[in-house]
Design a protein that fits this description.
Elements: H1 5-20, E1 33-38, H2 46-61, E2 66-71, H3 79-88, E3 93-97, H4 98-101, H5 120-127, H6 130-141, E4 144-146, E5 151-155, E6 157-160, E7 175-178, H7 182-190, E8 194-197, H8 203-208, E9 214-217, H9 219-224, E10 233-235, E11 241-249, H10 250-254, H11 258-292, E12 296-298, H12 303-312, H13 314-322, H14 324-334
Parallel strand pairs: 1-2, 7-8, 7-9, 10-12
Antiparallel strand pairs: 3-11, 4-11, 5-11, 6-9, 6-10
Helix pairs in contact: 2-11, 5-14
The structure holds (2S)-2-hydroxy-2-methyl-3-oxobutanoic acid.
(2S)-2-hydroxy-2-methyl-3-oxobutanoic acid (X2X) binds at residues 40, 97, 153, 179, 200, 217, 221, 242.
């Protein structure tokens, strides 16, 4: 098939004439801003449910000018791939763990320093306060806009198909999946484990085929992504809290009219608040549910785990890598770590 150049030019001219006359061809009835939101989390997770609600409200409040399509569950690729896509503009909005974002913005992994936040009150004062603001500024320098409040993922617990993790020695040589992130790898190396960096999109099959023995995630993810089907034990190590920053391509965001930015930011902010409440409710019931599904729980003493990390130089290493200013902001919330 050849393209008739003259006809092509005529068609272009024709649609320009239609537009000038205020007549929109049928295909132009699409929203003025068609945007893509992608995540790594199943459809039934509060993070996906709440963003879908927000997208509907945004469409209504902008009178159809902004249409955000949501692509959950790694439909557009694994996290590493989606991070490249939000940078290039192929994806517009992308919630991502700060620790995975660390591959681009070194500072963004700081909330993953093990045993930093003793409870949720501390998490939210740090992430909604000075520490979070400092991270968002660093993201902006990398060309990513970050919404004020991050989503909750949760305190992470270790699961295994081979044995329960009771003491730090149980992690010696343990083959564990970790997300793609320098801090995560360093943490499990400090425990003497063999961490394998694997995107979440591949985790279920990596556990099922026993490429790795275990993984670590909040109980809500273990439940919603059905990881309990391919794991036997769950050790409540609570070794770190992890959340997802809602990132947007910086150029796309800066190019949106201010009134539309305001409507999107308001609705995303409200969705995050509701998501955090949903997660808190889920946390009340999830352990009992997973027990009923057959997962065997134990609650290890956390003191020796933290002592192992101190001895291995984990805290000193990350204090040097993040630098004194960032570390001081972390310790403002965590208390002295190193
Ligand atoms: O990849 C994971 O383990 C997950 C789902 O918790 C994150 O998004 C970091």
């Amino acid at each position: 098939m050849t393209i008739d150049r003259r006809k092509f030019v005529q068609t272009l001219g024709g649609s320009a004439a239609l537009a000038a006359a205020g007549i929109r061809p049928a295909f132009a009835q699409a929203a003025e801003f068609q945007l893509k939101w992608a995540n790594n989390i199943p459809v039934t997770h509060p993070s996906t449910i709440r963003v879908k609600e927000a997208a509907d409200k945004i469409k209504a409040e902008t009178k159809g000018r902004v249409d955000i399509q949501v692509f959950p569950n790694n439909q557009l690729g694994g996290d590493t791939d989606m991070l490249s896509q939000v940078r290039s503009g192929a994806i517009d909005f992308f919630p991502l763990s700060g620790l995975i974002l660390q591959t681009l913005v070194p500072l963004a992994g700081i909330n993953g320093v093990a045993f930093a936040f003793k409870d949720y009150a501390t998490v939210w004062s740090a992430m909604d306060g000075d520490l979070g603001a400092f991270i968002r500024e660093a993201n902006a320098k990398a060309g990513l806009f970050t919404f004020d409040k991050c989503l909750d993922n949760g305190y992470r617990q270790i699961t295994s198909s081979t044995k329960p993790i009771v003491t730090p020695a149980d992690l010696n040589g343990f083959k564990i999946r970790v997300p793609v992130s320098p801090l995560w790898t360093s943490l499990f190396k400090a425990f003497g484990a063999s961490p394998a960096s694997i995107n979440f999109s591949e985790v279920y099959s990596a556990l099922q085929t026993k490429v790795v023995e275990g993984q670590e995630n909040p109980l809500s993810i273990i439940q919603i992504a059905k990881l309990y089907e391919v794991q036997k034990y769950c050790s409540l190590t609570g070794h770190m809290w992890d959340g997802q920053w809602v990132l947007a391509n910086g150029k796309m965001w800066a190019g949106l009219p201010k009134d539309l930015q305001a409507i999107i930011a308001k609705n995303v902010g409200e969705a995050v608040v509701k998501q955090r409440e949903d997660m808190a409710r889920l946390n009340d019931t999830v352990e009992a549910d997973l027990k009923a599904k057959g997962l065997i729980f134990n609650s290890p003493d956390k003191v020796p785990f933290r002592a192992t990390l101190t001895k291995a130089g984990f805290y000193e290493e990350w204090k040097a890598k993040f630098g004194p200013e960032a570390w001081a902001k972390l310790e403002q919330y965590s208390g002295k770590l190193a």
